[in-house]
């Protein structure tokens, strides 16, 4: 039993990270992402609980960090204490593409501006981590926002309460089934 299962004891994620959300990325209903922001500014990009991959119990065929012919997130190299050399990402920079066994392809975006510190190579060989532990071992990438932007990167993102409201509205609406 891990810490999250003990009543009243917050998980490591809940204790040290603030959850932010970006919903309906690029106008695609329910393609929601979660950004876990640590107090040290580092942000971990994960799938939100409402993402179709998690909601529809999809099986993953493959995960690809090759964004274009000349750009692979796997080639990202950072060095030193100040993490020099990482690829700089804008809010809508693609991080990877996930293809499910039913042929659906989902692009996962960075959601925030910053320097790519790492991508999770473990999910390439163990894609079920994405399904079983999306907030921990199944994360997509780690991004470090610029120091001067670290307070403003959450503008345009939803708080946990706002996100839950969006999910509830969707559930009550026949227009956008997820």
Automatic annotation (TrEMBL):
Q: Name the InterPro entries on file.
A: Abitram, GCV_H/Fam206, Single_hybrid_motif
Q: Which GO terms describe its cellular component?
A: dendrite; filopodium tip; growth cone; lamellipodium; nuclear speck
Q: Which UniProt keywords apply?
A: Cell projection, Nucleus
- Drop me one GO molecular function for this one: actin monomer binding
Query: Which cell locations does it reside in?
Result: Cell projection, Dendrite; Cell projection, Growth cone; Cell projection, Lamellipodium; Nucleus speckle
Superkingdom of the source?
A: Eukaryota
Name the Pfam families on file: GCV_H
What Gene3D superfamilies does the entry give? 2.40.50.100
Q: Which GO terms describe its biological process?
A: dendrite morphogenesis; regulation of actin filament polymerization; regulation of filopodium assembly
Q: Which family does it belong to?
A: Belongs to the ABITRAM family.
Q: What is this protein called?
A: Protein Abitram
Organism for this UniProt entry: Albula goreensis
Q: What is the lineage of its organism?
A: Eukaryota, Metazoa, Chordata, Craniata, Vertebrata
